[in-house]
Each structure stands twice: as structure tokens, then as C-alpha cells.
Design a protein that fits this description.
This protein is of the alpha/beta class. Helices cover about 40% and strands about 15% of the residues. It is built from 18 helices and eleven strands. α7 crosses α8.
Length: about 400
């Protein structure tokens, strides 16, 4: 852990739900000392987390490599303790609404007065201000508002939600990048700053070339189902025993596709003689390609096409994806020691660094609220009597 690039930084994690924890997970996986601050159980009136039970897969995968400290931030003693931690910390990550930050004494100007080097990292649904700045934002709502659902799904069947929490995880990754940029800036200037993003900003950015087609040309992209918006043929086709993804969109790939599957009629078809013609006739070419792929099994297509440089792959369920031989080779899971469940398997960071080998295990499973309170506060210089007094007052658990 000490050799990881973020091992010299202390992070106070006050995030809830999924977007904020995704950002903190990046820091935790690469060595940061992450202290997850939650309300004492008696103070938590939320009725449970939107990411499930503390020992469930979702919470564990979001909060591995963190330690737990329970503070009642609504109490004067709890706020005073939090400010003590701020004085020695490097990064605070939160996703409270603006009025909640003000009520808890967590606005940037307040924190900067305590520690000018502090980096406050915030994530919200729609931005820190503006017409929607006061609204709570969740992934489903932003998928619709950002236009993402309008380009997802099959034509004529209405908007479709992406099958993962794409705006949550994307905004979390962008905030993680912002935190790293703020650390570089602090190394140059000695000063912290407030870095923030939102689910909406992140998804508008994530629209990428389809967003730019609107901003440059006023073009409104539409749903194309399992086919690529601009590359033809590229999409999902039938095999003799299932379904397969094929990308034969360049001139060379198209020739190799036709030759590998013995389809001279496709290769010599005048309507498919150039990339522009293939795009113009994309509906018919997808029908004709499907007639060819249906003559081969999925395994045959994967082997024949990849052998000639035409990307092709099966369509797995989640279990098949993790059991695939390449995923197994990449070793995408790591175990974490849980205090009641024993060793549990979670999904590792996808980042690989030649000078910093990914640890073989996670050093902590996701903590229960307050699981490491005394241990952490001792590290910040509090003695047993001070900790006992905080427990007695209800400021910590």
C-alpha cells in the first residue's frame, strides 16, 4: 500500500449513493487513506441505503479499501471534531445539496479557513447552482434529461435506459480526475480549491460525437438499436446458435469479412462498393450481412473473422463475461477481508501502472458505520478519554 501513488493523502469521504463513492473508490484503490464518515446508526434515519445493505455486493464494491468513522455532524461536538479532521486532511468528497453543506458547516470558504490546502470535491445532480441546482438528481432522471435515453434502444420502441448507472459512474470518474488535477495544482501553488461536477454535465460530455453533431450541425441523433451510428456494417447479427457483434466498417475489413465468410455476392454488390455507399444503404446491408452470419456458429464467426482482422465477439451475460478466458487472464477480481463474511471477491480497478503493481488483495472490505472510529481518532491525536467523551455525548459511535 505504501508504494501506491496516493498513499500520502488523507481523504474524508462523506458521499452517499453511487456517484460520489465512485470517485472516492479511485483514490482508495490507489493508496489514499480514506476515512468514510457516516452518521452514527441511531442518527441515520434514512431507512437504508440506496446501494443496499452494508455487507451487500453494491456497498462492498463501492466502499472497499476504506475505514469507517461515525460522526453526528448535526451536533456541535461532531462539527468541531470534523473540523479537527479537516485541519489534517487533504481531500474532502461530498455530494450534499448546497443548503445541506451550509447547514453542516461544509462550504468551501469555511473549510479553506481551517486548512488552505484542503481540496473540496463535490458532485451533484445538476450543478451547484442554476435553475435546477436545488434539485436532487439520480441516474435515471439524468439519463432522460441529458438525451442519452433518446439515442438508446431500437427505433420506434421509445427511449431506453442504459443497463448500468452510467451517469453516476461517469460523473464519479470525472470527479476523480478533477481531484487528481487539483492535487497537481496544489503541488505547484500550495493551495487547495473547490472542484465539482454533476451528473448532467458528465452525461452531456459523455454524448461525445453525438453531442458535437448537434452543437456543430444542429443534427439530432436518433436511436439505432444495436447498430453503430456512423460505421457500417457494425452491430449485432444472428449466428446459427445465437447472436454476435461484428465490426467490418473499413474498406479492408469489409473485403476480409466477405472473403473469410465466402460471400462474393456481398463483396461485388455495386451498392456496397465504397464506404459512402455502404453507409447510404445501411439498412439493406445489415439485412444481407445477417443472412451470411446466420450460416455460421458464434464460435466459427469469432475465430474466422478475428483471424483476418475483423473485430467479432460473443454477447455474454454477466457471469459469462467474468468467466471468459480473457477476463480470467486479466484477473479482474480481488478478495477483501470482511469482519463477518470472511474473504469476499470484488471487482478491481481497471487501471494498470507499470511502476505500481495492482495489489493482490484489497486491504479493507467496506466498513460498517463507525467500525474504525477509535482507531482513526487515535491516529488524529485524540486520547482514550477524549474519545470516550465524544461517545458519551453522542457525537461519535
Amino acid at each position: 500500500m505504501s508504494q501506491l501513488p496516493l498513499s500520502s493523502y488523507t481523504v474524508l469521504d462523506l458521499t452517499i449513493a453511487r456517484a460520489g463513492p465512485t470517485a472516492v473508490r479511485l483514490l482508495a484503490d490507489w493508496g489514499a487513506n480514506v476515512i468514510r464518515i457516516e452518521p452514527p446508526p441511531a442518527q441515520d434515519t434514512s431507512g437504508g441505503s440506496v446501494t443496499g445493505a452494508y455487507d451487500g455486493p453494491d456497498q462492498q464494491n463501492l466502499h472497499r479499501n476504506k475505514r469507517g468513522l461515525a460522526i453526528n455532524l448535526k451536533s456541535p461536538q461532531g462539527q468541531a471534531l470534523f473540523h479537527q479532521l479537516v485541519a489534517k486532511a487533504d481531500i474532502i468528497v461530498e455530494n450534499f445539496r448546497s443548503e445541506v453543506k451550509a447547514r453542516l458547516g461544509m462550504e468551501y470558504d469555511t473549510l479553506k479557513a481551517i486548512n488552505p490546502r484542503i481540496i473540496l470535491a463535490s458532485i451533484s445532480g445538476f450543478g451547484q447552482d442554476g435553475p435546477y441546482g436545488h434539485r436532487a438528481g439520480v441516474d435515471q432522471i439524468v439519463q432522460g434529461l441529458s438525451g442519452l435515453m433518446s439515442v438508446t434502444g431500437e427505433p420506434g420502441r421509445g427511449p431506453m435506459r442504459v443497463g448500468v448507472a452510467i451517469s453516476d459512474t461517469t460523473s464519479g470518474m470525472f470527479l476523480g480526475q478533477g481531484i487528481l488535477l487539483a492535487l497537481i495544482h496544489r503541488d505547484k501553488t500550495g493551495l487547495g480549491q473547490w472542484v465539482h461536477t454533476s451528473l448532467l454535465e458528465s452525461m452531456l460530455s459523455k454524448l461525445d460525437f453525438q453531442g458535437a453533431r448537434y452543437t456543430m450541425n444542429n443534427e439530432i441523433p436518433e436511436q439505432l438499436g444495436n447498430f453503430h451510428p456512423t460505421q457500417v456494417p457494425m452491430g449485432m447479427y444472428e449466428s446459427s446458435d445465437g447472436l454476435v457483434n461484428v465490426a467490418a466498417s473499413t474498406g479492408k475489413m469489409w473485403v476480409n469479412f466477405c472473403n473469410a465468410l465466402a460471400a462474393p455476392d456481398l463483396l461485388n454488390h455495386p451498392d456496397y462498393a465504397s464506404g459512402k455507399l455502404r453507409f447510404k444503404n445501411k439498412q439493406q446491408i445489415n439485412i444481407d450481412v445477417n443472412k451470411v452470419t446466420r450460416q455460421f456458429s458464434t464460435l466459427e464467426l469469432v475465430e474466422k473473422l478475428n483471424a483476418v482482422g475483423v473485430p467479432c465477439g460473443p454477447i455474454h451475460n454477466i457471469g459469462q463475461a467474468f468467466e471468459d478466458e480473457q477476463a480470467q487472464h486479466l484477473a479482474m477480481t480481488r478478495s477483501a477481508p470482511h469482519h463477518t463474511l470472511g474473504d469476499i471477491n470484488l471487482v478491481r480497478s481497471p487501471i494498470n501502472m507499470s511502476a505500481c503493481e495492482t495489489p493482490d488483495t484489497f486491504h479493507h472490505a467496506g466498513p460498517a458505520p463507525g467500525q474504525h472510529s477509535s482507531e482513526i481518532l487515535h491516529e488524529f491525536g485524540l486520547d482514550d478519554s477524549a474519545i470516550a467523551e465524544l461517545i458519551e455525548s453522542g457525537a461519535i459511535a
